[in-house]
Amino acid sequence: MPTYRYSARNADGLLMKGEERADSAAVLAAQLQGGGLIPVEIEECAPAEAGGKKAALFARKVSREELIFFCTQMSALARAGLPLVRTLHGIAAGHRNPRFREALAAVIDDLEGGRSLADSLARHPKVFPLLLTSMVQVGENTGRLSESFHEVGRYLLQEKETTDQMKSALRYPAFVIIAMAAALAVINVFVIPAFHRIFQQAKVELPLPTRILLATSDFAVNYWIWIVAGLAAAWLGVLRWRRTEKGALAWDRMKLRLPLVGGILLRCVLVRFSRAFAMSYQAGVPLVQALGLTALAVGNRFVGAGIEQLRNGVERGDTLANSAAATGLFTPLVLQMIAVGEETGRIDVMLREVADFYEREVAYDLKQLTATIEPVLIVFMGVLVLILALGVFLPMWNLYAVARGRG
């Protein structure tokens, strides 16, 4: 019986860690849920994949596109009634990603050893997300495996489209900011020192903008090693802080409060929540368990904590609408639709409407984002150019005035 290392949250949202022996990761997840814990991560202490740790270290991660393709293939082949082992052999033969092929090979071995498909997939949490394995388990239990794979594939595809739209909208501002930073570095290191020597030889009184530029340039030239080292140390410190529980929660909360893009990010996360919860609920997952799985699938720990709060409210006997209102994450329109869905027994339908509503808002906001950011960037660049121009040209005008006076 293998040993698993797990992380799980209790009813108060606190993270619990430990090791436990179980027949499979799915069995351990069920045991944890039976004890009132929501599993966050379950990993086998001795890796089941062949090839060793060194090969797994250098193998690239499984992309979202590969998971979408896998779900689409599994849905079509399961609908055709082909045996699972034969289906997985065919899919593994067509993949170029070594990590994905090794995971599928291990899944095939587990299936031939008598494990279920959900249990076999759950033994590889870094390849197959928890939402996928949970939906596969529901599909196996209800005889709707093809529909489960189809729903997960459609969910991942919509996720990819939203992410691509966000990246496309932010690509231009990011490029402008990087170009401005590079231009500032070149000006401070190469251009301003050349003017500094001219000003020193002229022995004229320098205006305040010029003195500020010269001081900034001297600092950058003389202490650039310390500046680079400080930036690298700060970056590594932020990365380590983000890996902690409090740091990850604070980071995800901060992202949702960023100007211009914070509201868009929040709605993207809520689209994730609505679709994942509707999919789980429609597949027959119990309400509380569906909320627990959805909290792990939204990809934002701050919103996940709010969904955990919602789940705790439902466990205490409160209605879904009242618990959702207590989180402060949802708009009044969404809360009203959740209440209607709860009254009519069509929560999944209403949540899909919520997801469509948020997606329309996100699409509109993304179209307006570039138009909103462009004036801000233009003003910032104008101010920067003005400071540089004043700092460089004011003393040159003074030099010209002095030369004319001497002439």
Write the topology of this structure.
Blueprint: E1 3-9, E2 15-21, H1 25-34, E3 38-44, H2 52-58, H3 64-79, H4 84-93, H5 98-112, H6 117-122, H7 130-142, H8 145-202, H9 208-222, H10 224-243, H11 245-255, H12 262-282, H13 287-297, H14 301-315, H15 320-327, H16 332-344, H17 347-406
Antiparallel strand pairs: 1-2, 1-3
Helix pairs in contact: 3-4, 3-8, 4-5, 7-8, 8-9, 8-12, 8-17, 9-17, 10-11, 12-13, 12-17, 13-14, 14-15, 15-16, 16-17
Question: What is the correct CATH architecture of the largest domain?
Answer: Up-down Bundle
Major β-sheet profile: 3 strands, antiparallel
Distance between the termini: 96 Å
What portion of residues is helical?
over 70%
Judged by helices, strands and strand pairing, the structural class is: mainly alpha
Q: How many structurally independent domains?
A: 3
Ranges with pLDDT <50 over ≥5 residues?
46-58
Q: What's the number of helices?
A: 17
Would you give an account of this structure?
- There is one protein chain.
- The chain has 407 residues and is mainly α.
- The protein folds into three domains: 1-46; 51-128, Type II secretion system (T2SS), domain F (Receptor-associated Protein, Up-down Bundle); 155-407, Type II secretion system (T2SS), domain F (Receptor-associated Protein), CATH 1.20.81.30.
- Helix content is 76%, strand content 5%.
- It is built from 17 helices and three strands.
- It has helices at 25-34, 52-58, 64-79, 84-93, 98-112, 117-122, 130-142, 145-202, 208-222, 224-243, 245-255, 262-282, 287-297, 301-315, 320-327, 332-344, 347-406; strands at 3-9, 15-21, 38-44.
- Strands 2-1-3 form a three-stranded antiparallel β-sheet.
- Strand 1 and strand 2 form a beta hairpin.
- The longest helix is centred in the C-terminal third of the chain and has 60 residues, at 347-406.
- Mean pLDDT is 80; it is low at 46-58.
